[in-house]
Amino acid sequence: MNQLQANIPPPAEPTPDNREQQPHYGLAIRILVNLCRFVVASVLVFSGFVKLIDPWGTYYKIEEVMRGIPGLSAVGKFPILGLSVGLSAIELTLGICLLFAIHRRVASRLTAVLLGFFTLLTLWIYTNGSVSDCGCFGDAVVLTNGETFFKNLLLFPAALLVSLWPLCMVRFVSRTNQWIVVNFTVLFSIGLASWSLYDLPPLDFRPYHIGADLRGGLRQAAEARQPQFETTFIMEKNGERREFTLDNYPDSTWTFIDSKSVMTDPGEKVELQDFSIVRRSDGEDITQAVVNDKGYTFLLVAPVLEEADDGSFGDIDRLYEYCLEQNYPFYCLTASSDHAVREWQETTGAEYPFCTTDGTTLKTIIRSNPGLLLLKDGKVVRKWSRNFLPQAEEMGDRRLEQLAAGQPPETSFSQRMTAIILWFILPLIALTIADRLWAWTTWLKKKEEENRIYQLIKKKNE
């Protein structure tokens, strides 16, 4: 009897998922690792999510950074766009892996490497000053280069700590089902980025979002404190060189050598300070006339006409004819040269007036080339990408006041955000609950089976 009982395997440890041997760590280490894990995971998930919503915005930032790196300024459009989507998807996926403790060793080490790279990159950007901000959180949260570098200085040690003791992370899903979470996250990332590229970002954090008041923004820009500079003049007389300011500028016996300007006050940075519309036909600035116009105004936005998709020019031309019939102003805003404008007119037969606007501002206004903006009384009412332009045939002879195209979207910003988050979060929560119930049920069945076998053997040997 003793020999038979000795062959009975010991009961499993009281845990639903006990297939991986857990090292013994102190309570303080486990708490610290899991705290760091949740902080790093939350930042990565948020960072990846807001950039996947606006892949073109990330593209512009990467392109801007690459311009300052020798040998990378000539990288093509599609590799940078692929890097934009891929990097954002990696951030989101690594964040989810840390959050759910999936592939703990690999995920924690990759996260430490990624944040180490980001720390070095943001240090270079901070010291180099080649870009105003690195766009780590897209347009949702804009940080200065110093703030971004400091953020990475805090996150990198936290990621290192997690990578040293990865098995301290508490699992939320079993190893059997963790592939579902990873694949779902990757597919969600690709789907969200693809939709944002084909249409427009479903969440717009930029100053030209639907509902934005351009009149108020321009008024605020005009009243803002402007940057202040102090200019120093280097002058020479009889072999002696001295520096002077405007207050003590010397007489004509001194010879001018050089000058330098130092910013003494950066002024107030406001959102619409670079927004202007200059009519190309006569060079007149019509910014105030456009935003103060009563009623509807269409703005066709094409930052670079040489790269604009001309597949929708028929819809644009018919829409312009509709505007002529209904007496709605229609302008095309671009930063391209006059030569590019003439080529566009020859290719598409465009007859609408062209205006000049800063290229960076145009890329900020709408993530489509071309894209369409509808203003009403100086406020942004609608935005359309080139793939979803309003159809003049459907409008007929009705005024915009009578059409859905002339009204704000039915879903608000908060409703769209809630819908996107729920589409991502709810399946993960449902999977987690189902996985934990399955693991617990499996453990209970296994425990009952072991006890039943033990009782049968014990009864047989009595």
Please describe the structure with a list of short key phrases separated by commas or semicolons:
14 helices, 462 residues, six-stranded mixed β-sheet, alpha+beta, three-stranded antiparallel β-sheet, disordered N terminus
**Major β-sheet annotation:** 6 strands, mixed
Number of helices: 14
**What's the pLDDT, averaged over the residues?**
86
The class by helix and strand makeup works out as: alpha+beta
The secondary-structure element order is: HHHHHHHHEEEEHEHEHEHEEHH
For the biggest β-sheet, the strand order reads 4-7-6-5-8-9
The end-to-end span amounts to 8 Å
Description:
The structure is a single chain. With 462 residues, this protein is of the alpha+beta class. It is built from 14 helices and nine strands. It has helices at 2-7, 27-53, 55-67, 77-100, 104-128, 145-164, 178-198, 214-223, 287-291, 313-326, 338-348, 359-365, 392-395, 413-460; strands spanning 228-237, 240-244, 255-265, 278-279, 296-302, 330-334, 354-356, 371-376, 379-385. The strands form two sheets. It has a six-stranded mixed β-sheet with strand order 4-7-6-5-8-9. Strands 2-1-3 form a three-stranded antiparallel β-sheet, with no helix packed on it. α2 (27-53) packs antiparallel against α4 and α3 crosses α4. It is flat, with a radius of gyration of 31 Å. The termini are close together. 30% of the residues are buried. Mean pLDDT is 86; it is low at 1-19.
